[in-house]
């Protein structure tokens, strides 16, 4: 069923069918998992997938759940790693993506690496042979006015659909590139060097006047930092990605290439700031970090989007005074990536507030990665199916990995600076009575994962 059939209100026989059917646009990680979950709950599902009729620059096949780049689902450690915990939660929920990843697992130490072609073939065959699932090949280019829909069209959402989403949400609520500045765990910053202050102490409240964390550099440190930026390993754009991003958000290393002083007059300008530890010391340059979540556990390095390789990023960013021991919740990047401003557009059921018959799931909601995308598909599939069956389901509990992630994208994240996010422990609410900092980390992470598993199991049990 393709474009032009919608809205379908006037077509009464189909209309009755449509109200009971869940339509999922995009058969990637999220769409495949959503279909599996809803179909297993007894709901009839149609997956609309544009490939192989319409290609993207990154996919190679017409299979569902194709892994477009690396073959890794990252850490499988469900006690000490947030993505490993997400694996655990999806396995407990009978997730298809995890089951097929386990079936086609390749040796990779503590990581879950996957044999990509058999994996995608197995996901495709399993869904195709499910009695409640059918697949229709073709591009959807509109947001339908009726029926139950999940849009899981991913980072390479087709151009026509992107335009339809923009028409519904407003142009500034749909991004075509991410421009991710690195995100640092607040408790790994050396506060004997850094201090809190907004430029010129701007703001009405103390909170606003101290909204930024500042890391000062002297001339020598700045020059060494510029040298490191210029010589660092960088990644190139994939063929087919355009460089249209250059207008709005230059990578810092490109700024440095334009002149050694450019950063000092841009994101690293030292004006309007007084070093709280040494007021007479005038910094030559200042790196600023800003709160990235409501909990204040994560901070992003302002204006530091970058195409440096991950290894180079940690090395270069740890040269910043105060960040010598920084732990990164995520590293920076710039990619072709279509995503909506979920914190303003979606409710906690992942429904578009302006059109509640439509849910979004997967990377297009502003999560990042195969696992996170599949997880958001799992949740959206269950929420949508429950709604169709007339038993609305609470969204995932806040203290689970699933809940922390969905809460972040639908409310916890700063809407103005919203950029795609991996799951990480910085999204979790603290557990009372545990030691902060590096030393307490192992116990803290174990406490998060124990709490999450118990709450996730309770949430699942309620549905059985
Ligand atoms: C170049 C590139 C490299 C990446 N590398 C990695 C990596 O190494 N590791 C990692 O974890 N993540 C990586 N990602 C992110 C990765 O794509 C996502 O994590 C994951 O695939 C997202 O799952 P999804 O279901 O949201 O989207 P996808 O898996 O992309 O699925 C979306 C599906 O929707 C279909 N579609 C799009 N528009 C329409 C339409 N209008 N009508 C019908 N169907 C449509 C697409 O054909 C696609 O099959 C990469 C992304 C890109 C673009």
From TrEMBL:
Protein name in the entry: Methylenetetrahydrofolate--tRNA-(uracil-5-)-methyltransferase TrmFO
Q: Which family does it belong to?
A: Belongs to the MnmG family. TrmFO subfamily.
Q: Which residues bind FAD?
A: 26-31
Gene Ontology terms, MF aspect: flavin adenine dinucleotide binding; tRNA (uracil(54)-C5)-methyltransferase activity, 5,10-methylenetetrahydrofolate-dependent
Designated gene of the protein: trmFO
Q: Which Pfam families match?
A: GIDA
UniProt function note: Catalyzes the folate-dependent formation of 5-methyl-uridine at position 54 (M-5-U54) in all tRNAs.
Q: Which HAMAP family match?
A: TrmFO
Q: Where in the cell is it found?
A: Cytoplasm
| InterPro entries documented for this protein | FAD/NAD-bd_sf, MnmG-rel, MnmG_N, TrmFO
Q: Where is the MnmG N-terminal domain?
A: 22-391
- Which enzyme type, at the first EC level? transferase
